[in-house]
Every structure is written in structure tokens, then in C-alpha cells.
Specification:
Bound molecules: dihydroflavine-adenine dinucleotide
Shape: elongated
CATH class of the largest domain: Alpha Beta
Strand content: 15-25%
CATH topology of the largest domain: FAD/NAD(P)-binding domain
Number of domains: 2
CATH superfamily of the largest domain: FAD/NAD(P)-binding domain
Radius of gyration: 24 Å
Helix content: 25-40%
CATH architecture of the largest domain: 3-Layer(bba) Sandwich
Strand order of the largest sheet: 19-18-15-16-17-14-20
Number of strands: 23
Length: about 400
């Protein structure tokens, strides 16, 4: 080995959510661990997450809340480290938290408490080394040798925890994929997820509604969610659109149900109850005025309900229940909260996260082809995969 090379039991690349959790577990088992982080401080994405309060888990997190080429892969790690386990950790560190909505747990105070907690969980045998930009990794026999910012590190185990390329202005890159490919591991084509969608063509008229938000049901592919949609000057956003964006593929449609709490007969029923009312007025009872007016204009029914045939009202109800948008694309990695795709789960053991064909090489967190819904699910995967790996290094 080269002179000046520092030796460890394991080297973890990336001091993000998964890397820090993995380091803490491995360190607690007595391993000497180096965590190499390119940024000047650890956990940068944790610090900005959840609007600065970190939506650190979701009470309902289970395998069904994740997308992957192999939907079974995440089961083992998620079952062995659950939201209750992370809550226990947070409480042990006296971090106050609350449920915001839909099982989403946030810190009462700053997300920094989560980073501080993860660092505090690392015993003295763990060194978190910042400003260490990993440039090269080679495997020499059973040893991985890593070059980072002029220093050299060696260990028999190497963990890829460098995340995905979402939010490149924070320094995020596809480094994990390049490294995986270097060792012959397959990578599922990465694409932006939890990302706003752009509108063009006829849909472009909806961009006039920029700033308007309403609770809707949205569907794309196998994904269906009930949450708020937000019209933007580029197209569609808001939690429900971010959720379905993970299921949307270029060229396909997004179906939106306006007024999801009503059934297909609701306009006919309203005609019976209030024949003098208009479609516009009916919509205004459920939706912001600007959105109600835009939908009423497009439906083109201006008469009082009493003067509209039932069939036309049923047709309008059906259109409102299945309003089809054809997004032109997404706002890309620049705006994506996470990356879908990544290091193929087919290459990894679901128990240990070790590469089946490269002993000693592991991958965890967002770098792997496991992507959670919006709402704390992605951190839960980072914690669970980090623990699974940290316990088996
Ligand atoms: P993460 O990206 O956290 O860490 C990777 C680390 O590796 C980084 O510190 C990076 O600097 C380092 N690195 C990269 N290349 C390197 C190299 N070559 N050498 C050395 N180091 C390198 N999820 C959730 O569940 N709840 C939430 O509230 C939010 N909120 C949120 C907001 C925003 C704006 C974004 C962009 C994302 C979220 N997320 C989220 C998603 C969540 O942040 C994400 O899933 C996890 O941070 C993934 O954890 P990882 O440890 O895998 O990667």
C-alpha cells in the first residue's frame, strides 16, 4: 500500500442520510470507519429538507410506498428498521416532533437536530471527513483504495452512499452510478422524480391559473393520490403532482379528478335541488373561483342547470372526474426532490446491500433503484438501508 494511506475497516462515500446512519451502526459495532464527504459539512440535504424541519419519516412507510424495478427489494430492510425505530432514536435525543398530515413526521424545530443526532450516534471510531471529494476508487485484491482531495484511504469494505443527481446546484451528481458501472454493476436509467410537470399545447391555457391550488385526485400509470395540486407558470405542481410525477412517463397523460368528493351524478343532483344554479356556481362551491371559472369556460355550459339536459350534465361530471393533461415534460433534476432509478437492485443483496458480484462493495440510500413517495418515505429508506448495511459490514 502507498505510504500515507489511511486504513479503516470500512469507507463510506457520502455523509448524507444513508451514509451517516450506516456509519453510526458500523461504528457502534466497533468498526473503524471513514466517511468521506465532498461538501464542507455533512447532511446538506437533510438540512434543507421538509422546508428546514426535515420530514424524517412517515408512520405508514411500507414497501408499497416505493418504486423500484424490483418492488420486493426494499421489504427486508424496511421491515428490520421501521419508522418506530427512528422515532425511538429521535426521542432518545430529545428532539421534539409532530405529525403534519398523512403520517408525515417533522421536527418541531430545525432539521439540524437530525444531523447533530446522527453525528452524535457515531462513536469515536467513526471519522467524518469533509471537503473530501472522491475522485478515484480502485480495488486491489481485497482492498478498496480511495483517493479524495489529495488523501488516500483503504479498507476491505466500501459503501456507495453518494445519493442521486437531483438538485445539482447543491453539488449532487451521478457519481454513484459512474462508480457502480466501474465495478460492472447495472444502473437503471435515472430520471427526475417528485418533480413539477410542464404543460404546453392546449393545456398551456391552465398556466394562466399560476398560483391557484386545489385538492384533487391525480393519476398517472399505477399511481393515484388525493392531495393539493398547484398551477404554476410552467405547468403543474403541488404535492399531488409531485407524487404522480414518479409514475408519469414521457408521452403519457395525467388524469385529474376535480371535486373528487362528489360522484358522477353530482351536477344532475344539483339540477334537481337548485335548478337556477349554474355549473360555474356549482364549481365555485368546491374550488377556488379562478379555477372554477376556467373549468366552467372549458365545459361551455352557461345556462342554468334546470335548462341543461341530464346527459350533458353527466358528460360534464365525467369530464371533471377525468380531466386529461398531457405534460410536455418535467422541470428536470434541477427541481426534482429525488431520482428514480439508480444502481440496480438485482446487483445487491436485499439483506446486506452488498454487491453480489463484488464482495466488499455496498450501495445504500438514493443511489439505489428504490424511490419513495413524497412525505418522509425517502429518508426512511435512507435510514433502513443504512442500518441494513451498517449491521453487516
Ligand atoms: P444524500 O444526497 O443525502 O447524501 C449524499 C452525500 O454524498 C451528500 O452529502 C453529497 O455531498 C455526498 N457526495 C456526493 N458525491 C460525492 C463524492 N464524489 N465524494 C464525496 N461525497 C460525495 N426526503 C424525505 O424523506 N423527507 C423530506 O422532507 C425530504 N425533503 C427534501 C427536500 C429537498 C429540497 C430535496 C432535494 C430532497 C428531499 N428529500 C426528502 C429527499 C432526501 O433528501 C433524499 O432521499 C435523501 O437525502 C437521500 O439520502 P442519501 O444519503 O442517499 O443521499
Amino acid at each position: 500500500m502507498a505510504p500515507g494511506m489511511k486504513h479503516y475497516d470500512a469507507i463510506i462515500l457520502g455523509a448524507g442520510a444513508a451514509g451517516l446512519m450506516c456509519a453510526a451502526r458500523a461504528g457502534q459495532r466497533g468498526l473503524r470507519v471513514a466517511v468521506l464527504e465532498r461538501a464542507a459539512k455533512p447532511g446538506k440535504k437533510i438540512l434543507i429538507s421538509g422546508g428546514g424541519r426535515c420530514n424524517f419519516t412517515n408512520l405508514h412507510a411500507g414497501p408499497g410506498n416505493y418504486l423500484s424495478a424490483n418492488p420486493h427489494f426494499a421489504k427486508s430492510a424496511l421491515a428490520r428498521y421501521t419508522p418506530a425505530d427512528f422515532i425511538e432514536l429521535v426521542e432518545r435525543h430529545a428532539i421534539a416532533w409532530h405529525e403534519k398530515t398523512l403520517g408525515q413526521l417533522f421536527c418541531d424545530g430545525s432539521a439540524k437536530a437530525i444531523v447533530d443526532m446522527l453525528i452524535a450516534e457515531c462513536p469515536d471510531s467513526v471519522e467524518v471527513i469533509c471537503d473530501a471529494d472522491v475522485s478515484a476508487v480502485v480495488k486491489d485484491g481485497e482492498t478498496f483504495a480511495v483517493s479524495a482531495s489529495g488523501e488516500s484511504y483503504a479498507a476491505p469494505a466500501l459503501v456507495i452512499a453518494t445519493g442521486g443527481p437531483s438538485i445539482p446546484r447543491m453539488g449532487a451528481t451521478g457519481f454513484a452510478y459512474d462508480l457502480a458501472r466501474q465495478f460492472g454493476l447495472k444502473v437503471v436509467e435515472p430520471r427526475p422524480a417528485l418533480v413539477p410537470l410542464t404543460l404546453g399545447g392546449e393545456d398551456v391555457l391552465f398556466r394562466e391559473l399560476s398560483g391557484v391550488s386545489a385538492p384533487v385526485r391525480a393519476r398517472a400509470g399505477a399511481g393515484s393520490f388525493d392531495e393539493a395540486a398547484l398551477f404554476t407558470h410552467n405547468g403543474l405542481s403541488g404535492p399531488v403532482i409531485l407524487q404522480v410525477s414518479s409514475y408519469w412517463t414521457p408521452g403519457s397523460e395525467v388524469a385529474v379528478t376535480f371535486v373528487p368528493q362528489e360522484d358522477a351524478e353530482w351536477l344532475v343532483q344539483m339540477k334537481r335541488d337548485r335548478p337556477r344554479a349554474s355549473v360555474r356556481a356549482a364549481l365555485r362551491e368546491h374550488l377556488p373561483d379562478r379555477l372554477a371559472d376556467a373549468l366552467a369556460d372549458r365545459l361551455g355550459i352557461e345556462r342554468e342547470l334546470g335548462n341543461v339536459p341530464d346527459a350533458a350534465l353527466r358528460e360534464a361530471g365525467a369530464r371533471l372526474a377525468e380531466w386529461r393533461f398531457s405534460p410536455t415534460g418535467t422541470e428536470g433534476f434541477a427541481k426534482a426532490e429525488v431520482t428514480i432509478g439508480g444502481i440496480s437492485t438485482g446487483e445487491l443483496s436485499s439483506r446486506t446491500m452488498e454487491a453480489k458480484r463484488v464482495p466488499g462493495l455496498y450501495a445504500i440510500g438514493e443511489a439505489v433503484d428504490v424511490t419513495g413517495w413524497l412525505g418522509g418515505y425517502n429518508f426512511q429508506w435512507a435510514w433502513a438501508s443504512g442500518v441494513a448495511c451498517g449491521e453487516s459490514l
